[in-house]
Design brief:
Blueprint (H helix, E strand, L loop, with lengths): L1 E5 L3 H13 L3 E3 L12 E5 L5 H10 L4 E5 L3 H10 L3 E5 L3 H16 L28 H4 L4 H13 L6 E6 L7 H14 L7 E6 L6 H5 L7 H6 L11 E2 L6 E3 L13 H14 L2 E6 L5 H9 L2 E6 L3 H16 L7 E8 L7 H5 L5 E7 L3 H7 L11 H15 L12 H7 L1
Parallel strand pairs: 1-2, 1-3, 3-4, 4-5, 6-10, 6-11, 7-9, 7-10, 11-12, 12-13
Antiparallel strand pairs: 8-9
Helix pairs in contact: 1-4, 10-11
Length: 421
């Protein structure tokens, strides 16, 4: 059997060639698109110019075609549109990537198609069945569930409440401090005496979640275990209770391959359960937009969009306005946080932020102590070493809660901070 491999990166090309050879197949290292009719499958990198054309041709001739790429929204949409014989090989982790390749090669050898598809999962919770016993249309699968509609009606009737909130933290870019903010926000909500709140922090970065690493938590059962058990009631066996704050933590799966097991309906079901059990559900997400993000944004009472003071990141956050509109997510519940702002920014930040349709929740100054503290599994918002971060953090949390609710650091004046800002 022959597998065409179109991969410009040498190290990755070598790894794929080894995997193909180990399955007693022949790797065709030729990029001639006309050769697609003479091979049994094609692996093509999204970094290769014109990869979409290969995907389209393979789809027309029912040839298994696997795109090698980070699962961005554009890639996922292209693979999905190509049909049932297309698949995605995520490049997030080399070990997981090679495991995924071996799975695909085994399927090719047995004459079967892709098994890991964008949005697919190990369960299909709430899926509607048609007369022919096939799954319902995907547009039906991505409609708000009855539980979400009931929650919306309840909130419209009862009005705004400080408690009973789902808070999503998202950024289209990695490395902006999103997980750090998620951990500190959840910790603050859990330790505020006036709230006496039950708080759960969900690490939904299904590719490489690092909430457990930041908190120094031992590996425990995770979201995938809960899904496989059809969301049994014994949630206490799956969450880790952080001893200092009492907040609960639901970890992400340690194997990035399991990212395909978490889809829109799984997340919808998860949040419908957690929103009833907890006063605050804080959800940390990953940058690569998938259908599951739509469920998170729909359930969220507040979407905290995190950027840094660099123009590429700000531009990507600005582009999220169109994405949210396509997802039918109201822009009024999206709040922008500019994180890690240097003392002397290279751009006129205030002028740039005027162009955003989102409310600007605040800015957090660059604080070198935050990274150092995380390496020691510390919490920045309560550390005297991270005073700049803590001051801005408490102001921001109070702003999205709608009042002076959480405790401020000793010796710190909110009024003075706003005057400095």
């Amino acid at each position: 059997m022959k597998v065409m491999l179109v991969e410009p990166e040498e190290a990755r090309r070598l790894a794929f060639t080894e995997e193909i050879a180990s399955c007693t197949m022949e790797a065709v290292l030729d990029s001639d698109i006309e050769l697609l009719t003479s091979v049994d499958a094609v692996f093509i990198s999204a970094e290769y110019p014109g990869w979409e054309e290969y995907l389209a041709v393979a789809s027309r001739i029912d040839l298994p075609c696997y795109v090698i790429a980070k699962p961005t929204l554009d890639v996922l949409q292209a693979v999905k549109a190509a049909g049932k014989m297309s698949g995605l090989i995520s490049t997030f982790d080399e070990g997981a990537m090679r495991k995924q390749v071996r799975q695909y090669l085994q399927r090719i050898a047995s004459g079967q198609g892709p098994i890991i598809r964008p949005g697919d999962g190990i369960v299909r919770l709430g899926q509607k069945k048609q007369g022919n016993n096939k799954p319902g249309r995907e547009e039906d699968m991505l409609k708000p569930s009855p539980e979400l509609m009931a929650r919306r009606m309840k909130k419209q009737k009862e009005g705004v409440s400080v408690r009973d909130q789902v808070i999503s933290i998202y950024s289209p870019k990695g490395g902006v401090g999103k997980s750090t903010l998620s951990v500190n926000i959840a910790y603050t909500l859990a330790t505020t005496p006036s709230l006496k709140a039950r708080v759960i922090l969900v690490d939904l970065d299904t590719s490489f979640g690092n909430v457990a690493s930041i908190l120094g938590l031992p590996q425990k059962a995770n979201l995938v275990n809960w899904v496989r058990g059809e969301f049994r009631d014994n949630l206490e066996e799956l969450v880790y209770v952080e001893p200092k704050s009492g907040m609960h933590v639901l970890m992400s799966p340690p194997d990035p391959v399991d990212a395909g097991n978490i889809n829109y309906r799984v997340v919808d079901k998860m949040l419908s359960i957690l929103a009833k059990r907890y006063d605050f559900v804080v959800v940390d997400t990953n940058p690569a937009l998938r259908a599951l993000h739509k469920a998170v944004f729909e359930w969220a009472d507040t979407v905290l969009l995190v950027s840094t003071a660099q123009m590429p990141t700000l531009r990507d956050c600005k582009n999220m306005e169109l994405v949210f509109k396509k997802m039918q997510i109201p822009l009024e519940k999206v709040k922008l946080i500019v994180n890690m702002v240097p003392k002397k920014a290279n751009i006129r930040l205030r002028e740039v932020l005027r162009e955003f349709q989102f409310d600007i929740l605040g800015q957090i100054p660059e604080d070198p102590g935050v990274r150092e503290l995380e390496n020691a599994n510390g919490i920045a918002c309560i550390s005297g070493k991270c005073r700049q971060f803590a001051q801005a953090h408490y102001v921001i949390v109070n702003k999205f809660l709608g009042g002076s609710i959480v405790n401020k650091p000793k010796g710190f004046s909110f009024g003075a901070f706003f005057r400095r800002s």
